[in-house]
Structures are given as structure tokens and as C-alpha cells.
Amino acid sequence: MSTTAPGAGRRWLLHLGIAVIVLYCLIPFYWMVVSSFRLPTEQNEKTLFPQPFSMENFTAVFDPAVGFGRNLLNSIVVAGITTILTLILGTFAAYTIARMEFRGKGLVAGIIIAMSMFPVVSLLVPLLKLFTDIGWINTYQAMIVPSLSFALPLTVWVLATFFRQMPKELEEAAMVDGLTRGQAFRKIIIPLAAPGMFTTAILAFIATWNEFIIALTMVNEKSMQTAVVAVSQFTGTTGFDSPFGTKMAAGVLLTVPLVIVVLIFQRRIIAGLTAGGVK
Q: Cα–Cα distances in Å, from 99 out to 109, 116, 171, 176, 183?
């Protein structure tokens, strides 16, 4: 009896702690969703549900004068291309670090990690000057290239750890059967590394999708802004007020697709993050 009660108490405290953390994370998102469905004149109401239920804020977001549809397309293009480039370059770099032996290997790995620690704002001034000189301002590449500075180190580090956990005997057996190292990499390693690559691609896409400071600095034309930047610059009918409900609706549109992707592929993401953890 004396041993059961403390154990039950600890479990109760654990469940309570989990519930508090979940509520802490979900309440702001819930309030954003509720606010997005309120009438613009009812945004100061404190009710738990919108009364009445309205789609007016979402209609305002997609008003042709706002141009939010083009901003969403810009976000998809920038995040998508950055993710593809990151995955291609990061896979080769990670495999090289994990499998090859060469002089300065530790230094290269250290530089890659150091790059991820650099504050992005420290890179913006020299890049802004460079992109202005070569005419890249207000272009997709002006947002994609700097985004690689934080997406690529993450990809290399995650995939290098994943490749290290894969037995070297796989490539050796494939090469004994007549494959070159490149063929073994393409036909054996890549298919086995798919869970880790998939996980890394999702993480890189989300990080780039939510990026703000680079897109704000490199673009000053409204039609080239990403959705995150466009939301921060929403103005009301007078051009000076802040349309709270419209911003909440745009926030829902930016957040819900990512939440759905994570919920759908959560098993693949967990499998990719934990693959190779146990030999």
C-alpha cells in the first residue's frame, strides 16, 4: 500500500504536467482560430466561440487588392526550392562526412555546425550589398540562397548521424557484387535513408516557410513578399489600423497546412528521427 500510493501520485503529477504543457501550446492556436471566425466588429469579445460564426476575415484575406494568394505562392516556391536544394546538397555532404576519410574532416564538420550557430542577421548586411550589386533584390534567389545558411547545416548534421548508423557492410557487399560506390549509394543507401531524408525535408520546409527576417530584408516589392512578411504588413481600410481578424485568418492559413502535414506523417517523422538509434 505504501509503495503503490507514491507511484500513483507520481503518475498523476506526470499526467497533470503533460496536460498543462498541451494547454499552454494549444490555447494560443485555439484563440487564433476563434478570432479568425469572428466578425471584424466582434474582435474584442471574450467568448470561447465566435458569435456569430463568420467567414468575412477569410474573404478579406483573399481580396484581390490584398494579393495574399501571390504571397502564398511565393512562400511555396521559396520553401520548396530551398528544401530540394538542401536535400540534394545535404545528402551528398552528409554521406561524405559519414563514410569518407579525408584530411580536415573534423574541421569541415565543425565549420558546418558553426554555420548553424551564426545569427542570420549578421549575414544580411553583406548579402544585401552583394545582391544589390548583382541585381538580385526582389527575386526568389535572394531569399533562397540565404535560407540555405540555416537549412543546410541542419540537413547535413541530421543525415550524417543517420548514415553513420548504417552498416558499412551494405556498400561493401554491393561493391563485391559489381556495383561502384556511386551505384551502391544510389541503389542501396538512398532507399534505406528515405525515412531520415523525409524527416529532414519536412524540418527544412517548415523552417524556411516560417522564415521572416531574410524575406523582409531582401524584398521590398509587395508582389514578391512571402506570406509571413505580407501578414505582418496587413493594413485595414484606412491604411493605418491593424485588421486583427484578418491577420488571425491569414495565420490560420499559414499554420494549419503545416499542422496537417505533421499529423499525417508523424510516424514517418518519428521513424526518421529515431532510425539508427538502436543497433
A: 13, 22, 10, 17, 15
DSSP states of 207-262: HHHT--HHHHHH--SGGG--HHHHHHT---TTSSS--HHHHHHHHHHHHHHHHHHH
**How do the domains of the chain map onto residue ranges?**
4-57, 67-233
Say what the pLDDT of residue 272 is: 60
* Single pTM value for the model: 0.84
254 vs 33, 71, 228, 264, CA distance in Å?
Answer: 12, 11, 8, 17
> Which 8-state DSSP code applies to residue 172?
H
Count of C-beta atoms within a 10 Å radius of residue 83: 23
Highest CATH level, class, for 67-233 = mainly alpha
- Cell numbers 523525409 correspond to 198
What is the distance between the alpha carbons of residues 92 and 107, in angstroms, rounded to a whole number? Answer: 17
Phi and psi at residue 100, to the nearest 5°: -85, 150
In this structure, are residues 91 and 159 in contact, taking their beta carbons and an 8 Å threshold? Answer: yes
* 3-state class (DSSP) for residue 133: helix
Take residue 252 and report the three cell numbers written for it.
490560420
Spatial neighbors of 228 by CB under 8 A, at least 6 apart, are 75, 209, 210, 211, 212, 215, 254
Cα–Cα distance between 259 and 225 in angstroms, integer?
23
CB 86 within 8 Å of CB 151: yes
pLDDT in tens, 43-82: 777 778 888 888 888 888 888 888 899 999 999 999 999 9
